[in-house]
Design a protein that fits this description.
Radius of gyration: 14 Å
Number of helices: 5
Structural class: mainly alpha
Number of strands: 0
Distance between the termini: 8 Å
Length: 115
């Protein structure tokens, strides 16, 4: 296991964990965009739960690589869905934000897939 893999995975877990906590704490800068996009308020806990599970999975993947691979894949799918949601709402200037969070998840997939 390389140092770069550990650093990228932990960075991804920290970023995703922060995003999950922000959803659960209903930080305005996090919950206002989904409201603007037309996402029903009852759906908001699900992305937070997905991010929290992804965080735990990335960290567990440092010990059991297949868990990290599955968590990283799930996070990439989650953030791809976020980009699609932003695009459907036609707020293209917001698309880089989910991509920023997806980058470490993608980065953790490469070494996990080859391990």
């Amino acid at each position: 296991m390389s140092t770069a893999y550990v650093v990228v995975t932990v960075l991804g877990a920290v970023m995703t964990g922060f995003a999950a906590a922000s959803v659960f704490l209903r930080a305005e800068w996090v919950v206002k965009p989904p409201a603007d996009y037309g996402v029903p308020r009852g759906w908001w806990p699900w992305p937070g739960a997905a991010k929290a599970a992804g965080t735990a999975g990335l960290l567990a993947g440092l010990v059991v690589p297949v868990i990290g691979l599955l968590a990283g894949t799930g996070l990439v799918l989650h953030f791809t869905g976020a980009v699609v949601t932003v695009a459907r709402a036609r707020w293209f200037s917001h698309a880089p934000f989910p991509l920023l969070y997806a980058a470490p998840a993608i980065g953790s997939l490469v070494p996990a897939a080859t391990a």
